[in-house]
């Protein structure tokens, strides 16, 4: 008898445990984007917008439902994300799942509020919230941003953010920002988040990467522009950087995040034109001297340059003095840009997004000593010297640009 | 445990009964009396198997009776090697000795004649295909080996096919099988120990090994287990296998059947013992480790990179066959975050219209596939293509279109089924297919956690399993020096050492290759 009872009771334990809260794949509603805004009426409440992917649109032909939209966008006003998740089932038929949440969009107004950090930090207690989620700051309300974002090429909302993220890694026009990085840099250091908007205030500038989101001259297409960075300090947004500044901030880090960037610089021979180069980052070397009261920071950035276009048609290939001039001009231009950015961070933000604190921290025996030194405060007055070492790798496959001879 | 006890008690009862039947009764010197006894034993003439020829030999002035059993003897051989010499007058003078000795030494030109003295021996000789000569006034008989059973010729292997390598397979004749092995191993130390098993219908099992390689302990253990078999009749080696293996209830095999003489020979050269038996078109190899179930002969015949590539593919396929349905169910019910969003949405979109939970869906398909496979084996060859068409329809298009299953599941089941065909050994193949369901249910109940738990239990069970004193994962774990022909194989000239897990008497096959940083 015992022999029967034991396996039976074991089997019942197996059968009755663990699967109580199980849901089949299709019984969940998958939130792919969350937008968070400050409520206009009550300052302690937030508006949470869920963008829920509709599996039946744009996937396999077998499950196609042609008359449905690819995603459902709903906004709820609650105290935190999870009460919104519960509340959502008053509208949405399926249980909300954050398993495939990829992107969190925060309105600029909310990002500048203290509530931002509290909301995000408390949301992470839920296991479904992942630290890999991308953080984007939108100039307008996140709800408006999500509703206006209708990319032509992507039916699925998550696909849009996925591809954008892939490109960010290469271009460096926006920083690579996710919650993980945000939580690493909440004490003093600057955290750069993606800056995006659907509101346009077009400006025309000669330098193609010197824009913030919304300023890029663009005709037709998806209204969303992602450019530049929102700067966070101590869990609050304190300012923005343009695309150019963002690139430079990434380039000055010991371990640069961008693979290669294409940008244009003024032509040293002919002021009317600009030349386009591709920058590949070598290993940036940062030396921090903390022995004195005003720390000295020496940064050497070796960069490899490939010249892509040369509108002035000047001869840089066979004329060695031109070549030298080009090299010096690129170095000078980059150094000037870098120093401008450093100055901005010292004066405006009074902290640095370059991770130089890591180099500074190495020089102390204990964390207490480092804290006592107060790097953040010292940085604001530090003597920073940035040197670029340019190696021109190539000037294009053609030796000389084709010049039309005057007759 | 009471199972085993009952079985043993029963055997003991049978034993006393069997002993009575096999009592040794000497032959009488009255030839007709002996003949009558034998006729009674073989129920002559109701059973006309016994063929009796009464002869009077005028040359020797003797009456003799020549006995044989129909269907077991070569009639031509009897005529040319027994009857003709008996009836022909010898040229020279005959030595002055008694007639029986004369028969054995002078008259019969065969080497396989021997003197027997009991009724039981006569009976055994007859059923084994010998011809027996009863001589008047002699209390003994002469048995001459004239055995000839009907036999298939040596053909190509059917289950262990290879592209290159020898194409001969064992057939149902033990003599042919032994000959095929001796053709491979030409060594005076290649031993063949006959062990007789079965009480009513005695069968001989040949225990074959190389004396100066195989470990005595293993050989003795095999012979001991063979001798311990207590049953009236054993027809094939597959039954012998079930008697001598360590864990009859286990789903893992601990012995290996092969139909390839070259494979059996390579095992013999590593110190394994091979059993050959009449009526079995396979050889039984003991002891066996895990590695022999994932190896094929072709791994060694092909060049080293090719062999390793195929072996890697097979290993991957082994895990696919074992785990894919479980992984699918774990991922879709517990760990949805792991699937790429697009794939997840595609699965969810197709699953929305399917009325069953994932587990039901997957069981429907897996069971359908198993049915199809079993049907494929049993179906008459002429109906073979029908099965293919029906199977493709059931498992593919129609089931999806009828909203019974989602399309991705067809992929899962197809790849699982296909992978399971790469496992070379039949027994191991079935055990993997059974285990797949265990993993499936554990994954359904606990997700990856369940798979990990079952995997841990499985591994613990496998490492504790032994085959004739050799652990299942030897020589990898516990570790012994070996040729490292385990997961991957080294080049053939580096396989100079025999696996020490088999405790072979000669450790090396060849001198250690020099140079190139060979460490072992």
Automatic annotation (TrEMBL), chain A:
Domain of life of the organism encoding this protein: Bacteria
UniProt keyword list: Germination, Lipoprotein, Membrane, Palmitate, Signal
InterPro entries, alphabetized: GerAC_N, Spore_GerAC-like, Spore_GerAC-like_C, Spore_GerAC_C_sf
Subcellular location(s) per record: Membrane
TM segment ranges: none
Coiled coil: none
Residues of the signal peptide: 1-18
GO CC list: membrane
Domain Spore germination GerAC-like C-terminal: 227-396
Membrane topology, record value: Lipid-anchor
Domain Spore germination protein N-terminal: start-end pairs: 21-188
GO biological-process terms attached to the record: spore germination
Family, similarity comment: Belongs to the GerABKC lipoprotein family.
Protein name per Swiss-Prot or TrEMBL: Germination protein, Ger(X)C family
Organism, as annotated: Sporosarcina pasteurii
Automatic annotation (TrEMBL), chain B:
Organism whose genome encodes this protein: Sporosarcina pasteurii (Bacillus pasteurii)
Annotated stretches, region: Disordered: 1-27, 501-520
Designated name of the protein: Bacillus/Clostridium GerA spore germination protein
Family: Belongs to the GerABKA family.
A GO CC term attached to the entry: membrane
Annotated GO biological process: spore germination
Alphabetized PANTHER family for the sequence: LEUCINE ZIPPER PROTEIN 4, SPORE GERMINATION PROTEIN
InterPro entries in alphabetical order: Spore_Ger (IPR004995), UPF0353/GerABKA_families (IPR050768)
Transmembrane segments: 313-334, 379-398, 404-423, 435-463
Keyword line: Membrane, Transmembrane, Transmembrane helix
Keyword match Transmembrane helix: yes
